[in-house]
Amino acid sequence: MSRSVQNEDFRLINRILNGKQDLYEILVERYSSMVFHVVRRFEKDEDEVEELAQEIFVKAYEKLHQFNENSKFSTWLYTIAMNHCRDYAKNVRRKNQRFSEMESGFLDSDLIEQQTPHLKMEIKEWGRLLKQSLLKLSDDYSQPFLMKYRDGMSYKTMSEETGVSESALKVRVHRARKELKSLLENKV
After folding, report:
1. d(Cα 66, Cα 40) in Å, to the nearest integer?
2. pLDDT in tens, 119-167
3. How far is CA 123 from CA 118, 157, 176, in A?
4. DSSP per residue, 103-141
5. Is residue 106 predicted with pLDDT exceeding 50?
């Protein structure tokens, strides 16, 4: 990256921090291919890739005040992207491991008898908490969230059915997940 781009990045960051938030879009456009390249090393599903990239840019925006002017913005953003993707990969592995342990537990008939009442209660409780939390979300967030995760729809199909752009739906699903996470963390 040339020195002039680095200087321009620094000027943009200062202007963004001084209230010109809309200028952040320039940085997003400039570095989106780099971020997408990093994310695709960890995830192949294009919907997830876009969601992860969006989360990375949101995280970078929220931490922009921590950016050190002696660093390159591209290096700083790359570090955020790598850390976010590593955390994502760890969480995916953890979920897959738990599912695999549950699945193997269900196959063992002795374990079924020991765990089924407890698991049924736990699943019922999580379902109740999720339902309560979903009711607290606005329809603008809950409907796209349910279409994506309950119905397994792609953003393209969701857009065709609702008439809302794919990017707007992605933002709504992201915000719904964020709000649900916060609501559920407060209840657990």
Report:
1. 26
2. 666 666 777 787 888 888 888 898 888 888 877 888 888 888 888 898 9
3. 9, 29, 21
4. HHHHHSHHHHHHHHHHHHHHHHHHHHHHHHHHHHS-HHH
5. no
Q: Where are the domains of the chain?
A: 3-95, 117-186
- Residue 52 clears pLDDT 80, i.e. is over it: yes
Give the DSSP letter of residue 95. H
Give the class (CATH, top level) of 3-95.
mainly alpha
Q: Which residues of 76-88 are buried (b: 16+ CB within 10 A; e: fewer)?
A: bbbebbeebbeeb
Report CA 161 to chain centroid distance, whole Å.
23
DSSP 8-class letter at 42: T
Q: Are 153 and 124 in contact (CB under 8 A)?
A: no
Distance (Å, whole) CA 32 – CA 21: 17
What's the CATH fold of domain 117-186? Arc Repressor Mutant, subunit A (1.10.10)
Angle CA(105)–CA(109)–CA(115) in degrees, nearest 5? 55
